[in-house]
From TrEMBL:
Functional summary from the UniProt entry: Catalyzes the deamination of various vicinal amino-alcohols to oxo compounds. Allows this organism to utilize ethanolamine as the sole source of nitrogen and carbon in the presence of vitamin B12.
Binding locations of adenosylcob(III)alamin: P194, Q246, S296, M402
Gene Ontology biological-process annotations: amino acid metabolic process; ethanolamine catabolic process
Name of the molecule in the record: Ethanolamine ammonia-lyase large subunit
Single Gene Ontology MF annotation: ethanolamine ammonia-lyase activity
GO cellular component, one term: cytosol
Species assigned in the record: Tepidimonas alkaliphilus
Length: 468
């Protein structure tokens, strides 16, 4: 089947669904690098016109990557719910866009539809949408998950407290955790990217994090973001693992480049469930994704980077995760060149993930060689806050000294919460109130007043380090 559109006197023909999807994508450097982008704005418009006429059912007939060669494709097709799809089965991509923006597409209707949609369908409709449209539809999608607290409730936005340290020094990590807590951060997770892959070091870090939240009776969860096989070994050694982390991609070859398969993810998921460490729920997985990962692994199979990203969400959805976040600008300008491309990608990823039923967050970030700055991150943060994002990443001063990239800060989260009236996870906010660290509106009181009210020994070693 060929896909066609006419602009004036010129007819454009696209040979495959994969081609029309790629050429309908907004301009981004990664698709140009891969050689799949439209050659001109005219061709991009023509591709969108052709895509708008494609029946949604076509995505169940034409595989972008062959079923027999890719386990992610098999997962997508095998988990598709035909009964849920029936609501939109007779629509084209263009008609689906219009329906999503209508009042008929209520939060409840979108929830019932989730398992009837494939990643390719939601990627396709996103390509026909303006940024405003992506925000409007994503805002309708409520995805609630729970472990020691409840995340994703409407009107709430959580934060991951990211206390990375270049040498995994426990004093430095603990100091950043205290800094984040007194600024009201950490309800999504206290998550450390370790500098070392040594399993004994990872076990030690898990104990450090567990001791902090146990001594403070803090209603949040912890995670050491190492490779999933390291976490599995740590669990076998008795480490107090809350969440199992893994970076994932949208093709089997991408995931193999990460050293994982669905079978490995299955095993880790069952191990984490068996620990039963959750209090109010047992969503135990934490996944990170990012546009460009498939291309950087030469594993994209000619599929554009945004559609590959959406396919990764099918992998995540299999495990009912507590958290999923796109690390939107981390891979670099080879894939998302500037602030405009990063902003668009962040909105796309959030929209696609939420429509598929995932608890989406975002590391609103950029590397120092990208054509972007903190103002671009401010813009994306506000847009995602309006769109109902489940959580964002926060680091001291928006500068991660271990991973050497720019993100958002504890103070940025305070600003967008105050601006949009967003609350923290209810259990976590209640804890902050019990500590006397926030006022009745959930606003933090500031470090000087907060430290005077520190009602628990944060960690014995903190006292020796001068933070007690």
């Amino acid at each position: 089947m060929r896909y066609r559109a006419r602009l004036g006197t010129q007819q454009y023909v696209f040979g495959t669904l994969r081609e029309v999807l790629a050429k309908a994508s907004p301009l981004r450097s990664g698709d140009c690098l891969a050689g799949v982008a439209a050659a001109s704005e005219q061709e991009r418009v023509a591709a969108r016109m052709a895509l708008a006429e494609v029946p949604l059912s076509r995505f169940l007939e034409e595989e972008l990557i062959p079923y027999e060669k890719d386990e992610v494709t098999r997962l997508i097709f095998d988990q598709h719910d035909k009964a849920a799809f029936a609501t939109v089965a007779d629509m084209t991509v263009g008609e689906f866009r219009d329906w999503l923006l209508s009042e008929e597409a209520s939060s409840e209707a979108l929830k019932k539809l989730r398992m009837g949609l494939t990643p390719e369908m939601v990627a396709a409709v996103s390509k026909l949408m303006r940024n405003q449209d992506l925000v409007i539809v994503a805002r309708k999608c409520e995805v609630v998950t729970a472990f020691r607290n409840t995340l994703g409730l409407r009107g709430h936005m959580a934060t991951r407290l990211q206390p990375n340290h270049p040498t995994d020094d426990p004093f430095g990590i603990a100091a950043v955790i205290l800094d984040g807590l007194i600024l009201g951060a950490g309800d999504a997770v206290i998550g450390v990217n370790p500098a070392s892959d040594s399993v004994p070091d990872l076990v030690r870090l898990n104990h450090v994090l567990a001791e902090i939240i146990e001594k403070g009776k803090i209603p949040t969860q912890t995670c050491v973001l190492t490779h999933i096989t390291n976490t599995m070994e740590a669990m076998r050694l008795g480490a107090p693992v809350d969440l199992v982390f893994q970076s994932i991609g949208g093709t089997e070859d991408t995931n193999r480049s990460f050293g994982i398969t669905l079978a490995i993810l299955d095993e880790a998921y069952e191990m984490a469930l068996a620990l039963q460490r959750g209090v109010v729920g047992n969503n135990v997985m934490y996944f990170e994704t990012g546009q460009g990962s498939a291309l950087s692994a030469s594993a994209h199979h000619g599929v554009d980077q945004q559609t590959c990203e959406a396919r990764a969400y099918a992998v995540a959805r299999r495990y009912q995760p507590l958290l999923v976040n796109t690390v939107v600008g981390f891979i670099g300008p080879e894939y998302l060149y500037d602030g405009k491309q990063i902003t668009r990608a962040g909105l796309e990823d959030h929209f696609c993930g939420k429509l598929l039923g995932l608890p989406m967050g975002c590391d609103i970030c950029y590397t120092n060689h990208a054509e972007a700055d903190q103002n671009d991150m401010d813009n994306l943060l506000v847009l995602l806050g309006v769109a109902g994002i489940n959580f964002i990443i926060t680091v001291p001063g928006a500068d991660d000294v271990m991973l050497n990239y720019q993100s958002t800060s504890f103070h940025d989260a305070l600003a967008v919460r105050d601006l949009l009236g967003l609350r923290r996870a209810p259990e976590f906010e209640k804890w902050l109130d019990e500590q006397g660290w926030v006022d009745r509106h959930g606003r933090v009181l500031g470090a000087e007043r907060t430290l005077k009210k520190l009602s628990f020994s944060f960690w014995p070693a903190m006292e020796a380090a001068g933070y007690g």
